[in-house]
Amino acid sequence: MAKKFSKNSYFKNRELSWIDFNGRVLEEARDADNPLLERINFLGITQSNVDEFFMVRVASLNKLVSVKINDTDPSGMTPKEQIDAINEKEHDMVEKRYSTLNRSLLPLLEKNDIFLLNPTDLNEEQQDFIKNYFEDELYPVLTPMADDSSRPFPFISNNSLNLAIMLKNAENTGNLFATLRIPDVFSRIVRLPGENNDFILIEDIIKEYIGQLFTGFSVEETAVFRVIRDMDLDVAEKDSSDLLRAVQNQLKEREHGGVVRLEIENTIGDVLKKRLIKTLKVAKTAIYLINGPIDLTFLKKLPRLVSGHDDLKYPAFKKHLDPSLSMKENIFDSIRKKDYLLQHPYDSFDAVTNFIHQAATDPNVLGIKMTLYRVSGNSPIIKYLGMAAESGKQVTVLVEVKARFDEENNVRWAKHLEEMGCHVIYGLVGLKTHSKIALVIRRDDDGIRRYLHLGTGNYNDVTANFYTDMGLLTCNRDMGIDASNLFNMLSGFSKPPYFHLLRNSPNNIRKFINEKIDDEIDAAKNGRPAFIKMKMNSLSDPKIIEKLYEASSFGVKIQLIIRGICCLKNDIPGISENIEVHSIVGRFLEHSRIYYFYNNGNEDIYLSSADMMTRNLNRRVELLFPLIQSDTKKRAIAIYNEMWEDNIKTRVLHGDKFSRIDRRGLIPNNSQESFIQDAEQKNARLKKMKKEALNGQNAFQPMTKHEAGLPFESEEDD
Predict the structure, then answer these.
(1) Catalytic positions
(2) 272 domain-assigned
(3) Kind and range of the H or E run holding 589
(4) 164 & 94 share domain
């Protein structure tokens, strides 16, 4: 009888696994080996992570509960059980975050003369400064909102900081209530005058002088609070003929989503707290009493505001740019000679922007086709695409206007591209286009040729500095044909019968991965070596997990590097004993996807925009592409192996829990630092070669008979 791989006990709940991942990010904030200001940044990241998690994932679970859906996930949990478990775990995480801040990070900042002060801590000069700042800057903008029978409790927008205020009048006739939104047009962190790095939060300034807003009343109590609302965009695409307008309408409605989380300063009194909870209609488990400043995302900005103290940050390094991919060279000539494998941020993202830049300005380029999921606020790629269109080139851009939390930005860019003459596709009905592909059609001397960039990450020049991603520059003919067919699918009604080398989802990537796993299973059954190596952000698709369990049960050796969600459990006897799972959380966000199959020694390796998640495999347009040339294959395998050998930033899965590697007796290996060193060594070699070339131009060098091609090269001259 065939083994069953779908038991609930074989799966970790997706949401709880995500919280565990955020716990690994928190570990970086607690790690004394990390520079102090980087630890501060990591703590801020944990907050922004969890905010988005509640806005989307918890919000979707709340919707299921509200309509009484009790279907279970692969781990056997109902939506209500998941929400309860999430909140229980997150309450512990909140305690850890603020313990890290209050007991560790703030005291360490003070030891380095960096202070986050309260009004009572200020000297006379600083007191005068905040008083003037309040009266001159803040006071004109602030708008207190009364909360009484004639003026109902105001709408509290998502993720905004607010003050709950309790007052009394001169007659002391009872408690009065008001709210005040803390304006986000000002920096939350205010630098104070003085020689040190002294800062104060804007809400503390407002609390200090709030009495000026309530003349004739006494302020009895103030407390900061914020709500997290349901921000999951739900576009009824099948009913909409205008996707762009539908997205814009949803963006307006989203701000009024239901409350999924309420955070309140823990100093709040019972009367004010009860009024807030009653008015906002928040479940008891979703109420978080906070021991410190609410919303720690401000900590991500603090390191940039601190003067000096570079010693408290990661050392800067120079990214490597292959000279063949610089603007001084013809990049198309370079790509015709060989494929280029890029690993960001160690390889400069300039290689990609240069590729698009040259495509825009090269008179031999006829057209550019590209997919954009997330781009930066001042994207050079958008500029170059516009330049190309304005010069008469055919430019087609699919801008995914449903990219979560980038919808507004992408709508703006889509309109701008259209204004510049580009043909813009606003995503596809029912699917998100998450693939990363740029196709350049060029007239070469020997005919039309297609040049490609294929990547694992977004065309975002900002996030490319701290996301690890990989990309390929190639003019492989079959890949080029596949790319053309893909864009014809995206822009029209074409349905190519097959693709030569590229694999796309929905569905085809899943089918391909299953086939490759089956090949390794077949090898193991026949006594041949069988290996699978995968790196991804998340592994949650139950069918893929079951397939990996099946492979493991037949003896296939499986290595997985998974940064975030991992619903697979290892160490299950007879099921997952041959599966090892690592998670790397470090200086850079691990974002690349690598899929390796031993294939009887041929070592097939693929890169992809897709994680092994149901959404990526079933509901998104994704791409998976092979590395064909031996040097790119060799380098990609070496990159994977280097990460696998990491013993500093790696956690290892045991059952369903990750723990640090016991490094006793091991040579320390931080893979990200190793890649930085590789980039710096490449730069040093380039610098040396340039110096030698310059010296060669300026020095007198005697000719010898050993110089090839010299007219006196003969044996008779001896």
Answers:
(1) 434
(2) yes
(3) strand 589-590
(4) yes
